[in-house]
Amino acid sequence: MNYPPVLTKRSFVNRFRTGEFGNRGPMWDTIGDFLDDGCKGLIHIRNRVAGGPTWYDIPAELVEVTYRDITLMGIPGSQLYFAAMAPTEKTVLQGEVIQSVNGIELFYTQVAKPMRDALRENAKQISGILALETLKFFLDPSSFDWMQILLERYEGHVIEFSTYGCCWGTIPNRNTVVWEVRMY
Questions:
Q1: pLDDT tens profile 21-74
Q2: Which domain holds residue 79?
Q3: Are 25 and 84 contacting, i.e. CB atoms less than 8 angstroms apart?
């Protein structure tokens, strides 16, 4: 099967929602979907625009008012979607992996914070067998196999992921979620 490249953030989000990229956190496409579901816990309001602002750790009961405040700042509601907050405090590895002419390249952190903040605080880069063995050590076997499949299917893409010290996401018994697949 031929998998088309991911050319835009909007295309990615649409394909992400269908589960094309594997394990992910629970998500809702619109504020209506979120409210209808009655989700509890902490929520992440995400942006469909690459590099756009994102809002973390919003208690479910404050999502509606936070959403309204964001749209009053001029960000269209159609640009936003909603996700359950991952168990960030249980992060063991997160970052970006690519398959390049040099083999596997891993840009990563082990800081237990949301990825943007964690990578700014302490990022490392490794490649080749060291990168491969690092992934193999931290990802459960099914997650590792899936990462290999993604790298093969989406040649020339960056796979952004987080791995936790517990299983979490929409596919049972997986400790790794894919946050984004994009061209590099």
A1: 999 999 999 999 999 999 899 999 999 998 899 999 999 999 999 999 999 999
A2: 27-84
A3: yes
Tell whether 39 is covered by a domain. Answer: yes
Contact 176, 148 (CB under 8 A): no
For the chain, the maximum distance between any two Cα atoms, rounded to a whole number of angstroms, is 49
SS3 call for 162: strand
CA 152 to chain centre: 19
Q: Are residues 94 and 179 in the same domain?
A: yes
DSSP 120: H
| Tokens coding 88 | 């960030």
Give the pair of three-digit tokens for residue 146.
């899936």
pTM: 0.90
Positive or negative: CA dihedral 114, 115, 121, 127: positive
What's at 176, amino acid-wise?
T
Tell whether 142 and 171 lie within a shared domain: yes
d(CA 69, CA 92): 34
Task: For residues 47 and 113, state if they share a domain.
Answer: no
3-state secondary structure of 148: helix
Q: Do residue 40 and residue 112 come from a single domain?
A: no
Q: Please state the domain count of the chain.
A: 2
